[in-house]
Amino acid sequence: MTPQEIQQKLNDFFVNRLEYDESALKPEASLKEDLGMTSLDAVETSLFIRRTFGFQPERGVIKTIQTVHELCLYIENNLPK
Amino acid sequence: MKRVVVTGMGIWSCIGQDLQTVTESLRQGRSGIIFDPKRIEYGLQSGMVGKVPCPDLKPLLPRKFRATMSDDAEYAYMAVRQAFGQAGITDDYLLKNEVGCVWGNDGLMKPLKEVFDIMGAEHNSIMLGPNALFRGQTSSAAINLGTIFHLSGGLINVGAACASSSHAIGIASTFIRQGLQDVFIVGGSTEISEYTPLGVDALYALSLRNDKPQQASRPFDKERDGFIISGGAAALVLEEYEHAKARGANILAEVCGYGFSSNGIEDISAPSADAEYIAMKRALDDAGIKPEQVDYVNAHATSTYAGDIEEAKALTRLFVPSSLSSLSSLSRPFISSTKSMTGHENWMAGASEAVYSILMMQNSFVAPNINLENVIPEAKDLNIARETIYTPINIVLSNSSGMGGTNSALVFRKI
To answer: Any idea what the CATH number is for the domain that residue A34 is in?
Structure first.
């Protein structure tokens, strides 16, 4: 899966499932400040990653990630080989 | 002791989803019951249900609120926004003032089935996601209302079977009378699904008149054969009288009496005339009102065999002195069970029937007890309204009773 495909799937999840403002979806956007990610959204994002990308993020790790770009990198770096 | 008044109401029920429509339904004796084949396909014996639409909350609430809401919390939101709107309680008021919530609910089935289905398939609790907890709690409506409306006062769910929301009104009123808080949103909500509540069908307590759904709920009628599952949500803004006046709020009615009892007998499913009498008498005593002053009684009567008989006995003891013959029935309060139209709204019934009663009070009519053709002997001396009666209503007694032996009664007065 390419970085662009990861970005696209994540964007789709953010817009269609979590209903974040599409215009705010930029790589440097803060998950919490710009998109409004709540603690429950972080859990839901973790479940989305498991279902979509095939690995389970470690407990609490999503809440430590700051931006959309960092989250894409995290997914890219943890994709099952 | 402080006084308690109602300054706003809201309703999301099978006979209407706004106060005006519900008023007309009550006036016209319009049934909200349908036959839903999904209930039979699922294995229920009774296929009838109150038809309550699912609200479209997407234009009204951000996803972060919607995601944690059970179906009944959605109904509750629709009722509460109406009630706050009528009371003139704005978002700004809610942010700056302490408002509490006492809400009636005694169980959800649909969110729990969803949880068990996922666990059965996945065997991994992670797959439940973040919202299952909040959707499945009995207090789902109360906690979601607290979050959405920024409630900062007491937030309490009351689980007392089908008397839940009547007790909720009584308890919140008691808090206000004691000066503990000035404003509460109170009410109750009941989910509608084929899973709700399965156990009652197993008790043979539901009507099997599947071919005539709108004639199936027949409180006090000899041919009744059980109740109809129904639900939705009802809400009232309760407010301390001087606080309401100072705010310039429109006062709809006073909550002037609350009475309660439990059956205290070993048969968990049996109703008790003695205990219902005690709750109703206690409510009237609490209000300082004599039985002959009551204009209208909204009966609990659900259309079950035993329940209607016991309530009729309690009402007769309360309102028909033994020295009077049935010829003097004109001096007795009009009585009707609005469940003849709505079915049994379970947890929300106490609150919805408070709303229905106050609407009748405001519009000077008594809604009919539809489908009453041959009255049961135990109710022969009661003044049951078979048709709409146009008459001034100043004092209402609303009776509620719950499976398991919990009883609650409320008195409302026009001021």
So the answer is: 1.10.1200.10
Q: Between chains, do A40 and B131 touch, taking CB under 8 Å as contact?
A: yes
Catalytic residue check, B123: no
The 3-class SS string of chain B reads CCCEEEEEEEEEECCECCHHHHHHHHHHCCCCEEECHHHHHHCCCCCEEECCCCCCCCCCCCHHHHCCCCHHHHHHHHHHHHHHHHHCCCHHHHHHCCCEEEEECCCCCHHHHHHHHHHHHHCCHHHHCCCHHHHHCCCHHHHHHHHHCCCCCCEEEECECECHHHHHHHHHHHHHHCCCCCEEEEEEEECCCCCCCHHHHHCCCECCCCCCHHHCCCCCECCCCCECECCEEEEEEEEEHHHHHHHCCCCCEEEEEEEEEECCCCCCCCCCHHHHHHHHHHHHHHHCCCHHHCCEEECCCCCCHHHHHHHHHHHHHHHCCCCCCHHHHHHCCEEECCHHHHCECHHHHHHHHHHHHHHHHHHCEECCCCCCCCECHHHCCCEECCCCEECCCCEEEEEEEECCCEEEEEEEECC
> Is B415 a member of any domain?
no
State which residues form the domain around B361: 4-409
Question: What's B396's domain CATH number?
Answer: 3.40.47.10
Instruction: Report the number of distinct structural domains present in chain A.
Output: 1
For residue B414, tell me if it sits in a domain: no
Q: Using the predicted structure, report yes or no on whether residue B322 has a pLDDT greater than 80.
A: no
**pLDDT over 60 at B386, yes or no:** yes
Quick check: is B344 catalytic? yes
Number of domains in chain B: 1
Residues in chain B closer than 8 A to A36 (CB atoms): 64
Q: Do A43 and B130 touch (CB under 8 A)?
A: yes
Residue B219 in domain: yes
List pLDDT tens digits, range B227-261.
Answer: 999 999 999 999 999 999 999 999 999 999 999 99
- Concerning whether B14 is annotated as a catalytic residue, the answer is no
pLDDT digits (tens, 9 = 90+) for A10-24: 999 999 999 999 999
Chain A CB contacts of B63 under 8 Å are 18-19
Q: Which domain holds residue A35?
A: 3-78
